[in-house]
Amino acid sequence: MKIAILSFDIEEFDMPYEYGGKPTMEEQIASSTKGLETIVSILTKYQAKVTFYCTGVYATAKPELIKALSKKHEIASHNHYHSSHKKEDLSTSKAILEEITGKEVVGFRMPRMAPISDTDLVEAGYKYNASINPTYLPGRYDYRHISRTFFTQNDLIHFPASVSPKWRVPLFWIAFHNFPLFYFFYLCKKVAQSDGYLHLYFHPWEFTDYHLAKDGAKYPFYLHRNNGKKMAERFDKLMSFLTEEGFEFRTSKELLIPSISHTLPQGSLL
C-alpha cells in the first residue's frame, strides 16, 4: 500500500515582509482564507483527508473555520506566531487549537522549517515534529545529514518532508510550482517505492494571486510561478495522479501514531 500524507501550513501570510511588502494583519489572514477555500474544494472532490498545521494567531482569527476542518482532517500546530518564537508559544498555540477543536493536538511544524528544541516540544506535550526538509536549501538550511524517513529522537517522532532517495531532490512547495509535472510525479513514484509513503507540504496562499497584491512586495519569479488558478489546476492534477496510482490519503497522526485518541477527555480543555 502506498500512502500520501499531504499537509498545509495555515498562517498569517507574512512572507511579503521579506520582499518589501507591508500587508495588514487582516490582509494576511484573508490571503490564507481565500486559498484555503480552494484547497478544501479540491480535497472534497477526492475525499482526501490531510494535516493542517495552523498558527495560534490564524486559529484565533478564524476559530469556526478551524473547528470545521478538524471534523474531517488533523489539526496540528504551526507555532503561535509565524514570524517570531518564544518557548511559551508552543503551549499557547496547542492550547488554542485544542480549545477550538476539542481534540488533542500532537503534531508541530516550525515556520520556515526552522530548528526547534526536542525537549521544548516534548515538555509542551507534542508527540511529533514535522519541521525538517532533509535537503540543502541555499540561504535557509542544510539538513542533508538527517534521515529522509521518520525516526524517533529524544522521545519525539521526527517526520521529514519527502525528498528523492538518491540526490535528495526536494518535493516541497517551490519544487511543485517550478518542476514540470511529469518530473514531479516521477519523483513522487520514486519516493513511494523507496519509503512506502509520500509526505508533501503546501500553503493556502499559494492558491491565490498574492504577487498581484498592492502591498509593495516584489517576489522573484520562482516564488509565484504557477500560483493562483494555475496552482489549483496543478494541485488537482496531483490529486488525480495520486488517486490513479492507488495512494491512500492519511493524516500525519494516522501514519505516525495510529493508536492515539482523536478526542480529548472532558475537562482537559482550557
- Give me the number of helical elements: 10
- Beta fraction of the residues? 15-25%
Q: What would you call the shape?
A: globular
Please give the largest β-sheet: 5 strands, parallel
Helix content: 25-40%
SSE order in H/E notation? EHEHHEHEHEEEEEHHEHHEH
CA-atom Rg in angstroms: 17 Å
Amino-to-carboxy terminus distance? 39 Å
How many DSSP-defined strands? 11
Poorly predicted regions are 261-270
The secondary structure category is alpha/beta
Mean pLDDT: 95
Descriptive keywords:
5-stranded parallel sheet, 10 helices, 38% helix, alpha/beta
Describe this structure as you would to a colleague:
The protein has 270 residues and is of the alpha/beta class. 38% of the residues lie in helices and 15% in strands. It has ten helices and eleven strands. Strands 1, 2, 3, 10 and 11 form a five-stranded parallel beta sheet that branches. Strands 4-5-9-8 form a four-stranded mixed beta sheet. β6 and β7 (141-142) form a beta hairpin. α1 (25-45) packs parallel to α9 (229-244). The longest helix has 21 residues, at 25-45. It is globular and about 45 Å long. The termini are far apart. Residues 261-270 have low confidence and may be disordered.
